[in-house]
Amino acid sequence: MEIVLIISVVLALLVGGLIVGLLDRRPAPPKGSYQGVRDADDPRPAPRHAAPGGSTAVLERPEAEEAPVDLVEQEVVEEVEAEPAAPELERPEAAGSRLARLRARLLKSNNVFGKGLLALLSRDRIDEDTWDEIEETLLMADLGTEPTMELVDRLKSRVTVEGTREPEQVRELLREELVAMVDPSMDRRLAASRRDGRPAVTLVVGVNGVGKTTTVGKLARVLVAEDRDVVLGAADTFRAAAAEQLATWGARVGVPTVRSEKEGADPASVAYEAVAEGIRLEADVVLVDTAGRLQNKSNLMDELGKIKRVIEKQAEVDEVLLVLDATTGQNGLTQAKVFAEVVDVTGIVLTKLDGTAKGGIVVAIQRQLGVPVKLIGLGEGADDLAPFTAEGFVDALLAD
Fold first, then answer.
1. Is pTM beyond 0.85 here?
2. β-strands 56-58, 385-387: how paired?
3. CATH code linked to domain 99-182
4. How many Å separate Cα 28 from the centre of its chain?
5. Residue intervals in the chain for CATH 3.40.50.300
């Protein structure tokens, strides 16, 4: 009996061990089907959870705990909504190199004017026919009748007294007289500094087609190159593309633009808000672009007058710059007279001077309006606008 009991126990132990061995040799679940808690030393990869939109996110699971679903969604949303890096701002060209480059262009565009005068004055014999040619050259350069007669009389007097014919002496004589005509005594500085705790305010006016909005954008670059803080006001609300164009110019150099989303909005209101923003940001300058409509003087006067009055409720208008196209010649003078009767123009911006040999327009405009040319444009490039100087202008006209 005892022997039978012992045999039964041994058999039971053998059967139990066999069952345990079989259980230990079960195959592992396939990759991707793991659903339980994963040990830290488990070599199998962590599970991947489907994210919204079809993307996936791999999570680091806390030990013995699955990551909550809302955490997965939060991480994916943060990844999708991350703001793109801000675009790198352009660095405008400094005034010094800009002036040298623009003078070179002026030399090419007005070479006929300067060379023609030098050739005539260097003749061995200067008779009345020669003086007629000199007079004609000056008139063709849009110097104007009165300034032309004045310059010819002064040249006649000096040539007769000094009797010079040497090229260098003739060049210096002509340079002195032309510089005097352009008038270096005129104040060509721009109002571009804060005063009385508020920014300087500049209105930019002119007819459509002269490059007025582009000039405002280029002027902003000139001021940014001088480390000025600028705010732009898109008060030309009657031309659909004007506000967008101005905002693009400002964005390239990090300058904010105040504009209305509604086409045909009140330009005086936009101008007011631009100045208010300039005051809030403690800017140095606020540049306000205005509409260039010129149907009749009355409408123009009403609109510009209203803009100026509304702005002056919070700040004085320090500068009114009139943009003129140099290629229009005497027609530009007519435009200038109309604007001068409407607003107190303080300076001229002369664009497209590289497209004409009529450099005398500078003298004619200054004589007609009694205000200085302060800026000149000589090309389509972003930095093709520079401060005007009498000496630099004349030197470019007479350069070899």
1. no
2. unpaired
3. 1.20.120.140
4. 67
5. 200-390
